[in-house]
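User: You have something folded?
Assistant:
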Amino acid sequence: MHAAVVTGGSRGIGRAVVERLAGDGATVVFSYVADERAAREVEEACGGRAVAVRADAADPEQVERLFAKADTVFAGPLTALVNNAGVIDHTPIDGLTREVFERVMAVNVRGAFFTVQAAARRMADGGRIVNISSTGTAWPSPGESVYAASKAAVEQLTRVASRELGRRGITVNAVSPGPTDTDLLRAGASPETMAGVAHMTALGRVGTPADIAALVALLLGPDAAWLTGHNLIADGGLV
């Protein structure tokens, strides 16, 4: 069974991943930034198989603290990383502030890089890394310039890391969710918008966090051992 670290695991897709992995028998250490109550709810839902650690992915020192905690929780070496922590912004280019640009890049790019680095230094041969990207890199929308750019960087990091870690049998892949029914999406989209997006997918609905967690679990499993360096688009046929 996996000893897994999941970043951004207290809500949405991250929470679904933590709960899926714990349900499959993994021991999971996951990070959160602010909502301690939500993090404790995830721990409780996982029946003792998940441990929450407050850590901001934008800060490499806090990332290192997350992994140091994982070192004390796991009985053996780290075997899996799911790099899910991220932030989004919808400001048009001509109104984007330096502060917003720096925050999105700090979490989505710097955070992803140093999380992969910390994991690679600890991970057992044959381990698994999954980075969460976005269909925004293939189907960009107005107002997503910095977000799409940050996720494009994550996809290239995935490709390079797969080359560097492949000789150790470690696979590195990305998953790009399409519109997924989370609190974050519902906060920014009206019911009419949600229905319109659902109509545009081949399967006639938006995704669920469990849909994405299932694909992540597949990539972490033995049947995906020959798949690395890829970006899997999970959008129900939208793009």
